[in-house]
Amino acid sequence: MNASSIGRRVRQALRGRRAGIGTFSPRSSVGVDFGSHTLKAAEVVRSNGGFTVTRIGIIQTPRGAVSKGVATNPEALGPVIRTLLDDSGIRSKRVVTALGGQSAIIRLLTMPEMPEGELERAIAFEVDRYLPAGVRDVKHNYRVLGRKPQDGGAQLEILLVVAAKELVDRHMAPLAAAGLTSAVMEVTPFSMVRAVAPRDGNGDTATVYVDIGAESSDILIAVEERLRLARNIPIGGNALTKAIAEALGLDIDAARALKEQRAQAVVEREPAGDLRQLHEAILPVLSTITTELRRSLDFYQARLGDEPISKIVLTGGTAKLRHLAPFLSGELGVPVELGNPFGACEAADVPSEYAADVAPMMAVAVGLALRRLTARAAVIAIAIVALAVWGAVLIAHVNHLRRDLAKATQEAAQLRPIAQQVQELKRTAERVRTRRGLLQQLLATQMPASQFLETVRSVVPPDVWLTSVTAGTSDVTLEGYTFSYPSVARFMIALGESRSVRNIDLATSQRETVADSDVLKFRITGDLVVLPPVTSHQGAPSRTEASP
Length: 548
Ligand SMILES: Nc1ncnc2c1ncn2[C@@H]1O[C@H](COP(=O)(O)OP(=O)(O)OP(=O)(O)O)[C@@H](O)[C@H]1O
Ligand SMILES: [Mg+2]
Description:
Elements: H1 3-20, E1 28-34, E2 38-47, E3 50-60, E4 66-67, E5 70-71, H2 74-88, E6 94-99, E7 104-112, H3 116-130, E8 138-150, E9 153-164, H4 165-177, E10 181-187, H5 188-196, E11 206-212, E12 217-223, E13 226-233, H6 237-248, H7 252-262, H8 273-304, E14 309-315, H9 324-332, E15 336-338, H10 341-344, H11 352-358, H12 363-371, H13 388-459, E16 464-471, E17 475-482, H14 485-498, E18 501-514, E19 517-528
Parallel strand pairs: 6-10, 11-14, 14-15
Antiparallel strand pairs: 1-2, 2-3, 4-5, 7-9, 8-9, 11-12, 12-13, 16-17, 17-19, 18-19
This protein binds adenosine-5'-triphosphate (ATP) and magnesium ion.
């Protein structure tokens, strides 16, 4: 394989990785930095070939809601993020976030050059090596940073980022709770560097970037955009606060306030009075930070880079500790300056005094916003996962659905008693309908018979004596005595005229002698006629339907 084809493959690999994390470049973008102490948001807009920070906001993180660089309490964070964006006037629904602390693993690998498919497989094996015990479900992403010629071949420099899927999902949850989706997720040191890296850097020197937050600090060394080292140490402003609280017998809030207002790192003469006490309290913590920094610098110089370290750029809230920069510079023998994310982007729309005060804390948020606007710092633009874009959208979508479902379930619970009442009413109505049907049936069978009996009573002639009247559902039988056939005939005519019976027939008749008198015993049969029901407003019963 010749040098040009290797170069082409490296370029392809770079392009492929970039394509994976999205080439869409919007006009404005919002970054949200989940700090354990403060949540920070920044909106950056593309303007005149550069960038302008248009809106920024900072809000206290609910206690314990972000820990070790990961959101742990989405319910508490969601509304606070919403307030942060509303108060800052940020309306975008899409934001860029990052995992912080040690929640993501950042590794620089050197691997022999190989075809891209095999490289992916080799990296997947490599990922397994870095996983903490018990963690199997991870997201990873990598970027080929460059290649170094080696005897007979070349070696690829690869930047690998790995994060447990569970942590990525957990970090996304508060965004969904705030009605947001994440455009992309990366790791905080990359964002911080993007915001404060010098635009005019040259490839001859290395820069050390140090973000000292509350819980932990990121240390990153890069030559221009080529990452050389990335570490996170679990020490930051909280350790200073705790040291003051213990030394002066104060509660944490009072100690923090004192630290922010009065504490300082001492450069030359030791201070007097209460400042001296404060100084003595924080010195061990400052020494630990210094030692960790020195170890990173030494490691880089001994093992990683030929390029000398030109300076240290400090960011994070703790970088605001008075005289910290000159203190570290004196201890480490390297120039130290405060990083200013508003140097890279104009902050025309933000009051300058406020911007200057919060600048070090805003580096990660501004860098996150820049993540979608610029291809600059491509090397450190690696997202944790290419599919974080879609993962985030899906998670947010699922969460929206969950919220909708929860809302619907709640509404259904509220409606349940009413629905039960409606069901009960339906059942009652059904019962009433059934009963009415039965009654109608009953009436249909009983009414003709009872009507018939009424009729018989009114039409039976005085010379006719009935001994039995049997009414079925549709027929009737009358038995009795009279003196003559004309009497029976008159009775039968009267029955017919009553229209309550038809098909009247003299079924049997016979002469008998009762008490020395001649009588005629008869049996008359007929069919009952169903008359229409009588309703109160109809007045007299209509007989039309009863007509044969
Ligand atoms: N003027 C100041 N002097 C000293 N420390 C300060 C000052 N202002 C803020 N801090 C400290 O900075 C820390 C907050 O910084 P920052 O917002 O960068 O942390 P974070 O991002 O919330 O934390 P982490 O990244 O560790 O989760 C707190 O410990 C706070 O007390
Ligand atoms: Mg932070």
